[in-house]
Amino acid sequence: MIGRIAGRIEYKALDHVLIDVRGVGYVVHCSDRTLAGLPGPGEAVALWTDLLVREDLLQLFGFTTLAEKEWHRLLMSVQGVGAKASMAILGTLGADGVSRAIALGDWNAVKAAKGIGPKTAQRVVNELKDKAPAVMAMAGAAAPTAPEPDDAPLVEPDAPRPAAAPANAAAQSEALSALQNLGYAPGEAASAVATVLGETPEADTPALIRAALRLLAPKG
């Protein structure tokens, strides 16, 4: 299994990028959003990857964050969602958007992706809602350490590591952990954090926790 690719971009196409790793070119399929964020030809790049294996096909998919990669894996587990549909959902919403939509049960947001009908969107939300807290917590994971010398054949020496998660991804992870430590169920904690992030995307950890607690407080 190829879990990470690091090298130099040879060219970018509509749905994939060719990455040269020490003379070997890897075709890596990416969502529109991921492709738009990649540098141009000749530039160094590093992507998390997932390999799709079928009898007549081997396809490598690339992601800038572990959360994006995990959502791709989970989306593919839903009946009716193949690699193309998963890329469409991630390209439309991004990993954070998918987390919020599923945590909040917002299947209309999922349906906004090209080729996704209402039944499939509802199935995605219903089947993956319990998975949202774990993937949201994963958003704060650090980038991997530099490879050991034995890994050199697969890694360009001066290629960068995969992009670090944005600052509020760590805040999101910490807020989820704090709420669960206070006794809230993972699902309700994730829903509250997703709601707050939708309104104030730049909220830090204390602000996220305070706002989420206000949402979770008993009404009346």
Automatic annotation (TrEMBL):
Domain Helix-hairpin-helix DNA-binding motif class: 73-92, 108-127
Gene3D superfamilies (alphabetical): 5' to 3' exonuclease, C-terminal subdomain, DNA helicase RuvA subunit, C-terminal domain, Nucleic acid-binding proteins
UniProt-annotated stretches for the region Domain III: 167-220
Family as reported in the entry's similarity comment: Belongs to the RuvA family.
Molecular functions (GO terms): helicase activity
CDD domains named in the record: UBA_RuvA_C
Compartments where located: Cytoplasm
Function statement: The RuvA-RuvB-RuvC complex processes Holliday junction (HJ) DNA during genetic recombination and DNA repair, while the RuvA-RuvB complex plays an important role in the rescue of blocked DNA replication forks via replication fork reversal (RFR). RuvA specifically binds to HJ cruciform DNA, conferring on it an open structure. The RuvB hexamer acts as an ATP-dependent pump, pulling dsDNA into and through the RuvAB complex. HJ branch migration allows RuvC to scan DNA until it finds its consensus sequence, where it cleaves and resolves the cruciform DNA.
Domain topic, free-text comment: Has three domains with a flexible linker between the domains II and III and assumes an 'L' shape. Domain III is highly mobile and contacts RuvB.
Protein name: Holliday junction branch migration complex subunit RuvA
Self-association state and partner proteins as the record states: Homotetramer. Forms an RuvA(8)-RuvB(12)-Holliday junction (HJ) complex. HJ DNA is sandwiched between 2 RuvA tetramers; dsDNA enters through RuvA and exits via RuvB. An RuvB hexamer assembles on each DNA strand where it exits the tetramer. Each RuvB hexamer is contacted by two RuvA subunits (via domain III) on 2 adjacent RuvB subunits; this complex drives branch migration. In the full resolvosome a probable DNA-RuvA(4)-RuvB(12)-RuvC(2) complex forms which resolves the HJ.
Region (Disordered): 140-169
Chain residue ranges for the region called Domain I: 1-64
Region described as Flexible linker: spans on this chain: 154-166
Record key words, sorted: ATP-binding, Cytoplasm, DNA damage, DNA recombination, DNA repair, DNA-binding, Helicase, Hydrolase, Nucleotide-binding
